[in-house]
Amino acid sequence: MQNIDLTGKTILVTGSAGFIGSNLVLELLKSESEATIIGLDNVNDYYDVSIKEWRLSEIEKAAAESSCSYHFIKGDLADRAVIDCLFADYKPTVVVNLAAQAGVRYSITNPDAYIQSNLIGFYNILEACRHAEPAVEHLVYASSSSVYGSNKKVPYSTEDKVDNPVSLYAATKKSNELLAHAYSKLYNIPSTGLRFFTVYGPAGRPDMAYFGFTNKLRKGETIQIFNYGNCKRDFTFVDDIVEGVKRVMKGAPEKAVGEDGLPIPPYAVYNIGNSNPENLLDFVTILQEELIRAEVLPADYDFEAHKKLVPMQPGDVPVTYADTGALERDYGFKPNTDLRDGLRKFAEWYKEFYKV
Fold it and tell me: Which of 68, 104, 284, 294 can pair with 315 through a Cys bridge, CB separation 3.0 to 4.6 Å?
């Protein structure tokens, strides 16, 4: 593995107004020194833009107190000219591509958004890395646990075959891994894909179940719990994801030459998950308890009257469960935030943000 010191480096984080991207930028501003951090995001209205604006304002505050310099560019990953200009102007040598159209269910009704952002956008990043001067030392990009589809074997290992996606979103993420492999092989670009498992936490995405449940419960609406509550998810707190990404950024796959004289692709893929799948019904119970504790919901809230067990949704999978052995082995890291601690932080943020 090639160690990369981020001190003084120019780092590009795409999707920097997004949930994981904004938290990564905040962490880099706090923990790194003398780096130049470029954030790129199109700040689209897939969900409530005020949350994205809040995240960006938190970054501005952190940047004011950091030894790093920070620049935000509002632009679209799928716009080749924007990406080419950015690379020409700033010359990033570490690239973290987190910008993507997220969500399994939205991909069923709006496939175009996924092709533009996840395929064309990622291709633009790969091309920019290919032509970059100076050379990009490490490209880290977001994949997803959804690539495992309806694999029966658990926990999911990166050694498993992932040729049967059950959503277009999953298919685009698997495509990213294939494209990255080809570019690593052809152009010797060190690249690492990260398969994230159900990320949650403060200022998260409102289309995620825990956030949507909270909004509905507050309004006195009924929440639907799919697969009759028998889904299991490897819920991973956002701080654990960010710590994992940061460690991976600092360790790039080694460049090497094979017996044929051609590059062995400097390519890797890891799972980042909690390795502890939780039953959805248990998750919702803890969420409700923490919302009451934070006074988002009243103490006498009748939870039973506001939940409905319903069948599985198209594109969903019954269980996600990460084998994180490779991440522990290579980077000495294993996510470990307790579910209740993570949901408590979300509930407290929610109360403050929405002035409950």
Answer: 104
Angle between helices 19-31 and 49-64 (to 10 degrees): 10
**Quick one: pLDDT at residue 335?**
94
- Helix intervals (H) in the chain: 19-31, 49-64, 80-90, 104-109, 111-114, 121-131, 168-187, 209-218, 238-249, 280-293, 325-331, 339-353
Place of tokens 């590059």: 263
User: Quick check: 297 and 217 in contact, CB under 8 A?
Assistant: yes
- Token representation of residue 222: 């009924």
Apex CA 255: angle with CA 249 and CA 327, to 5°?
Answer: 40
Look up residue 82 and give its amino acid. V
Task: Tell me which DSSP letter residue 329 carries.
Answer: H
Closest listed residue to residue 39, CA positions, set 1, 5, 11, 3: 11
The residues carrying an active-site annotation are 169
Q: What is the pTM of this model?
A: 0.95
Give the neighbor-by-neighbor strand order of the sheet with 191-196. Answer: 69-74, 36-41, 10-14, 94-97, 138-144, 191-196, 267-272
Taking every pair of Cα atoms in the chain, the longest distance, rounded to a whole number of angstroms, is 70
CATH match of 2-201+235-275+319-336 with 3.40.50.720? yes
> Can you tell me the mean pLDDT for 304-315?
86
DSSP 306: G
User: In 3-state terms, what secondary structure has residue 12?
Assistant: strand
Enumerate the domain spans of the chain. Answer: 2-201+235-275+319-336
Alpha carbon 204 to its chain centroid, in Å, reads 11
Q: Which amino acid is at 159?
A: E
pLDDT tens digits for 240-257?
A: 999 999 999 999 999 999
pLDDT band at 217 (very low <50, low <70, confident <90, very high): very high
